């Protein structure tokens, strides 16, 4: 701003000076020449009277000053010249002022010297003797005067430039100081600048708009961050070079990132499948694939991002589908196992029925084969019943409501139900502990405990024992079923609760197990938010503990009502 003010002031100063000089010269030069002409005429009259009285010698007695006096005969011969030797001068008969004087008695002329930028005024008078008396005076022309004043003009301009610089600095400082002191966040009109009112009002309005937009943008960013941070899926936004612009915590966890992902170049990731998907997306191709990530299976979605038909980056979404894959595998295995388990009794029933239909069975053997059909049908009924229970537990569609359940009383009822099977197996079933009441679904808890005790009896040995213990622990209400039976190998601990999984398949078939008992236990425990602990070793027996959360425990008297 200082430069602009300086330029304006200096330009005005220079223009004013030049225009003023031009106007001054234009006005004064004619006046000056008129005065000079009058003086020459007066002086010429004085000289003519002197020559008339005293003769030609009178001219040599006076000081001409800056004027030039010349006496010329009528034929043009120069008789006298105050500046030069008359004998050296050429004939003046052709001079304009001489010709005018000889013709009219007086004459005048003006001659210019472009070289010297001078202007000479001539006045002439015819003397009684017939000679011509001429006087001349030389002065600078307008351009000559201007050139003569160049040096003073330059000095004035230099002074004007310095003065303009000082004035412009002070003026600009005075002008900008109130502007610099304006609070752009809350602009107020300075007292000296009422003209700024429209500007500051607009600025204030724009500030409000910007604040509103920033607030809205901040809210959108917070919502976006909140959404992405609460996503289980990994989320990354990359620019067109593959550099991370944004990501959520899940992405770092899935990629096992030891350092922050922000600003990292993902095109050089050690995971080749991820690199390939990113490269394809940055080339404009949509990618959807399954990739292994540190022991997990993830579904990767890579989508290119366009802005005004220009590829600006890509969005990567990583979805952990390990459990989904495992469930799909279990579903396929379950379907295959169900088909196999249903096919076996149905095939047996169909075969026996076909033999009976053909009349090839001895009438005395009919009760035996009828018993076979009954056993296989019962096995089929139990299998279908267990499948239905598992389906209900999976879908949380148990047709019962929660109520207070005394675990010790439940264990004692289970012991009564299994007295005969235990006696047949020559296994002793004991229940001990203290009354512990929890909130639960009685039929589900009953089925769960029955299956545990039933397995402990079936997979025991003659003379074996089964102990059921109910107690309170710091972790919560606990019920444990322990036996000294055949035990479970360590490599099978993680799979014994899977559907249709049998540790000893031949023994399971012999005792009529469906392979769903422990799976029902697992899902029943999950339904009650209970934790299962398993301790077992071959030949040393098995102990399974069910630990319910403390929040499920209820006062003892609740179960009595």
TrEMBL record:
Task: Identify the enzyme class.
Answer: transferase
Q: Which Pfam families match?
A: HATPase_c, HisKA, PAS_8
Chief location bin? membrane
Q: Where in the cell is it found?
A: Membrane
Q: Name one GO molecular function term.
A: phosphoprotein phosphatase activity
Single GO cellular component annotation? plasma membrane
What reaction is this protein's catalytic activity?
ATP + protein L-histidine = ADP + protein N-phospho-L-histidine
The alphabetical list of record keywords is: Kinase, Membrane, Phosphoprotein, Transferase, Transmembrane, Transmembrane helix, Two-component regulatory system
What EC number(s) does its UniProt record assign?
A: 2.7.13.3
What GO terms in the biological process aspect are recorded for it? Answer: cellular response to phosphate starvation
Q: Which residues cross the membrane?
A: 6-32, 144-169
Highest rank taxon of the organism? Bacteria
Domain named Histidine kinase: residues: 337-552
Put simply, this protein is called histidine kinase
Organism field = Allofournierella massiliensis
């Amino acid at each position: 701003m200082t430069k602009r003010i300086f330029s304006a002031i200096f330009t005005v100063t220079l223009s004013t000076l030049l225009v003023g000089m031009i106007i001054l010269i234009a006005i004064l030069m004619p006046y000056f020449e008129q005065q000079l002409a009058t003086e020459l005429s007066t002086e010429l009259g004085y000289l003519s009277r002197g020559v008339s009285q005293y003769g030609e010698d009178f001219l040599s007695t006076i000081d001409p000053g800056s004027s030039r006096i010349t006496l010329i005969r009528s034929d043009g011969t120069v008789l006298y010249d105050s500046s030069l030797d008359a004998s050296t001068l050429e004939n003046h008969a052709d001079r304009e002022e001489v010709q005018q004087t000889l013709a009219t008695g007086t004459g005048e002329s003006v001659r210019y010297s472009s070289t010297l930028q001078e202007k000479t005024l001539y006045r002439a008078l015819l003397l009684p003797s017939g000679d011509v008396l001429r006087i001349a005076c030389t002065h600078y022309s307008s351009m000559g005067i201007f050139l003569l004043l160049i040096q003073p003009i330059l000095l004035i301009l230099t002074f004007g430039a310095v003065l303009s610089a000082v004035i412009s600095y002070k003026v600009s400082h005075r002008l900008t100081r109130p502007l610099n002191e304006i609070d752009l966040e809350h602009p107020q009109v300075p007292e000296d600048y009422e003209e700024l009112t429209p500007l500051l009002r607009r600025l204030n309005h724009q500030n409000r708009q910007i604040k509103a937009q920033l607030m809205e943008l901040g809210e959108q960013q917070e919502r976006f961050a909140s959404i992405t941070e609460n996503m289980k899926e990994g989320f990354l936004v990359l620019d067109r070079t593959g550099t991370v612009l944004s990501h959520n915590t899940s992405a770092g966890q899935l990629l096992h990132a030891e350092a922050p992902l922000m600003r990292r170049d993902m095109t050089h990731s050690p995971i080749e499948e991820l690199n390939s998907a990113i490269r394809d997306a940055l080339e404009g191709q949509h990618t959807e694939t399954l990739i292994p990530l540190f022991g997990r299976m993830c579904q990767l979605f890579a989508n290119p991002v366009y802005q005004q038909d220009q590829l600006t980056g890509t969005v990567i979404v990583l979805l952990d589908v390990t459990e989904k894959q495992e469930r799909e595998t279990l579903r396929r295995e379950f379907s295959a196992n169900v088909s196999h388990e249903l096919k076996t009794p149905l095939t047996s029933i169909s075969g026996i029925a076909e033999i009976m239909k053909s009349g090839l069975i001895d009438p005395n053997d009919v009760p035996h084969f009828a018993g076979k059909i009954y056993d296989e049908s019962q096995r089929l009924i139990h299998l279908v019943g267990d499948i239905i229970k598992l389906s209900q537990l999976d879908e949380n569609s148990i047709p019962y409501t929660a109520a207070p359940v005394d675990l010790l009383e439940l264990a004692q009822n289970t012991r009564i139900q299994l007295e005969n099977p235990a006696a047949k197996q020559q296994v002793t079933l004991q229940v001990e502990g203290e009354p512990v009441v929890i909130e639960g679904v009685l039929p589900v808890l009953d089925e769960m405990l029955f299956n545990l005790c039933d397995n402990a009896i079936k997979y025991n040995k003659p003379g074996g024992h089964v102990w059921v213990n109910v107690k309170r622990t710091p972790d919560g209400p606990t019920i444990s079923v322990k036996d000294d039976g055949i035990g479970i190998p360590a490599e099978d601990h993680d799979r014994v609760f899977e559907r249709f999984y049998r540790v000893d398949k031949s023994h399971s078939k012999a005792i009529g197990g469906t392979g769903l008992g422990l799976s029902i236990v697992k899902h029943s425990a999950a339904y009650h938010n209970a934790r299962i602990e398993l301790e077992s070793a071959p030949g040393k027996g098995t102990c399974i503990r069910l630990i319910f959360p403390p929040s499920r425990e209820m006062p003892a008297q609740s179960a009595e009502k």
